[in-house]
Amino acid sequence: MKKSLIVIGIMLLLPTTVWSGIEDITIVETNFDAGQKVTGTNQYERAYNLSNAPSEIRDAAGTIFNGRTVYYFNGFDFKNYKMTDPNLNTITASEVRAITQGIPGQTQITRANGHYSIIGHSQGGLRALAYISELKRSYPDNQGVLDNIDAVITISGINQGLPALDDGLAGVRGRIAPKINTIGNGLRAAVGIYDVLGGFVPFIPRDKLSSAIDFFISIIPRSKRPYWAEAWKFPFTHLYPQIAGMVPGSNYIRENVVENVQYTYKKQMNPSLYMYIAVPVSRPKFDESVPVGFIVGLDNITLNMADNPSGVRKGVRAAEVGFGVVEAVHINRCVGLIGLITGSVTYAYDASRARKFMDNIDSEMYHVIGSTEGDGLVALNSQYIPLKSGSSVVGEVQTLNNLVLGKPENDEVWEGFVRKPYYNHQNISQMADVYVTANDMISESRLLRGRDN
Questions:
Q1: What is the value of pTM for the model shown?
Q2: pLDDT (tens digit, 9 = 90+) per residue, 382-436?
Q3: Are the beta carbons of 157 and 294 closer than 8 angstroms?
Q4: Looking at CB atoms within 10 Å, which of 50, 283, 302, 423 has the fewest?
Q5: 337 burial class (0-12, 13-18, 19+ CB within 10 angstroms)?
Q6: Tens digits of per-residue pLDDT, 81-127?
Q7: Chain-centroid distance, C-alpha 299
Q8: End-to-end CA distance of the chain
Q9: Measured between alpha carbons, how far is 175 from 170 in angstroms, rounded to an integer?
């Protein structure tokens, strides 16, 4: 998701090449320069060797890929995103051109010669799966272009959309605003300790207290704050084409990656009783011939993605204690008439809610991101495409018919993805063992397809 999350020639969300003597891996980094004119067309890619990539990606990937051609699709560029940037359909078509034809003047860097793999982090994982569909549309009569792909692997991919964006940006704002108000009311209660006139402090706008908003902004990694500030002011999803594509069930997802539909079954329970059962079914839209792999992050503590997690956690704890003191002061005032005159009953209630909010900050953030299981930003069930759909009542059917990579030999119950329990959405793309897992998936695919490893 950061700009440092790169496309490897391998984050994710929005969501690799040459290092340590490896000369033939290239990286296409898709933080796009919209509108760059190249031979009369708009090109959105920048291509360069991994030796120029951010150090955390170079260091994590090391020499793991042993000269294999791997493209890395990076995640959403929070820091530099503009409303005028291209939508995901335009970006995906651009990535297909870059890999199959090369960028004019840089063909030797970006164009794939022979077999290659794609690894995508965050939004890059979503685009990596959509790449398969766009590639097939671009070359409808050429199965060879699909056969050239060794594997498509997603790392904390928003493969079924970002649940936090359910109901668009307005929904995000609607979930966050009450939490900001809770903190704001708690601060108001703290100021209310000095309210001897009664009714003066309540005129401070509850949802305008900058300290409460600053607290939430402090949790957001610095590189992402400009986007959130803009989206908070203008929460209209259609104004942000890339974000619109990340909403669960968006046209981009339904046409390129997965379509979630609901079927209603009529089941006879006894001779005179029938039950109607609604069953959700996930139907992949990308070509079944391409092997895929899903690496999922499972550190779902959102605060761990802050620039200074321990500092933020200490601040939360201090705020919890502080609101507790404010609550106690107002409760004590309520013992006498002075508390009733100065509004301490309301202040004590507000301080109590703010204290409980701080005490349960992690579960409060689960509500914002839309799941109690995931990587701190993306829900687990969005990071992969299920192997089967259905229910225990009406039965299950195989829906993902691609070769899904990463199944352990001794795993009797195959979930269809590889877990990384200690990594969150932010750090998973910077961990060497994640790329080892990705390379093992590529080896597995090449072996099963009779290709030299």
A1: 0.78
A2: 999 998 877 666 667 778 888 999 988 876 678 899 999 999 998 898 888 898 8
A3: yes
A4: 283
A5: exposed
A6: 777 778 899 889 888 888 888 766 655 556 677 888 888 889 989 99
A7: 13
A8: 31
A9: 9
